[in-house]
Predict the structure.
Amino acid sequence: MNPLFSQLAAARRRLRDSHGRAITDLRVSVTDRCNFRCVYCRTGNEGAQFAELAHADYLRMIRLFVSLGVEKIRLTGGEPLLRAGLLDLVREVASLRTVCTATPQPLDLALTTNGHLLAGMAQPLKDAGLTRITVSMDAVDPETFSRITRVPRSFDRVLAGIRAATDAGLGPVKVNCVLLRGFNDGQIEAFAEFSRRENVIVRFIEWMPLEEASTGEHARKWTKEAVVTLDEIVERLDRYAPAGLGSSGLIELPPNASSETARRYTFADGVGEIGIIAPVSRPFCGHCSRVRLTSDGKIRTCLFSQTDHDLAGRMVRGATDAELSAYIRQVVDRKEARHHIGEPGFEKPSRSMVHIGG
């Protein structure tokens, strides 16, 4: 077949929802277990609530999505580094190639971790074929960090993991920080210095209503007033003069891609990068390119979906690859146009973030 015709045929196979958005990004949770109990995320008392599949099942699902045009895979949890056999899964996924590009290309294969176990796994992950890594880290002050994670002396281990990932060639490492007003919003300027000092990309994320229901002294119930917005973060960093620079002021950077979720900034000398992901104050649903697979094999088309779509159940009942692909297309076609955070009648999703996958 003429290569041009092949490329056009592949483009027609690409997953699109009813709003015309191409789905190129799949996030796969391989466990909902976690060794942290972050106060904005979970109570930490129930442990895992959903099953974990065999790696062969995740791999079959990923292959199906890749055959439909997905080009980016992110492995998540829970905490994915808790999952036995993870390196084998990374190695298998890294061997896959894109189908909707002019020539087949390796996938963009990333992983999100809390970093607690990363120091000893960074190089093996790189050797297995991992492309990029993101570390969730909500303070650069050890005491505040331990208060958030509720795991004593956890900061030093995460810092060691970040440095190991950089040394392994998984950089620039992205460090995600969820800001809560009155809790860790005093860390903004310190994170800017951290970005410059450690050569990492710091990304601030507006807090979303995805926490587990909980009570007691550690309970954190989402309110719009607790959200530290993009405008506020930019204003503070715009006034901030990094050590040794002598002048303040942020410089906005262009997006890396049309589906970029973060607004990107640097400082006058180009050292350090700050990204701000603002799903509450500046929703980016119009160019959303992602869907998620939960640890028990359910498709979720939005973080705030009220429905799980049981892909694993169809696999267990003997569906063929063609039947599963048709089901995926059917589910993606019904992907929500947007979330409704802060609007009258808004309902929290049917699962909390730790049981969906980051």
The chain has one domain: 3-355. The chain has a mean pLDDT of 88.
